[in-house]
Please model this.
Amino acid sequence: MKVKKTERMKKIASSLLALTIAMSAFGAYKTMHKKKKKTTKQKTSVVANPTNIKSVLMGRAACFGQCPTYTIEVFETGLMRYTGKDYVDMKGVYEKQISATEAVNFLKSFNTLKPDTLHYMYETRIADLPGIYYFITYPDSVKKVINADSGPRILIDWAKKFDEFAKVDRSWKLKNEEK
Model:
């Protein structure tokens, strides 16, 4: 009887974690892009021109412990935006400018993922894993990939590339104060 309760509790905890990660990912995206016009309908599955990426946001979601929770977004203009949330040295929204050429080259190299072939969500099999998610913005659509930690290995490798490319240090400028 105790074994069945434990298994049921594990399933419930796993489901709650998946829901929390998904909600966190959508909340982070909405917060980062709330100045966009609401009349634009964003698609998540159809990508018209996968080489014309406007920006890519990579986020790391929370776990039950002290996992760093943050997002990094690289725009084709060279603007990079970091939002530190929990268990990070730098909390708040920070921005840094790099050359547009460097940013475009990074975004073009992101196409090695073949974003149009990625699933919208990858189910996690371990309840306490911190999630990784991506929002790939095109001129007329957004491709979302949630819980990439349990997807193809290249998604985890790309998260590391993001962290290396957009290394967050004291050269970033704080855009708003943590409340």
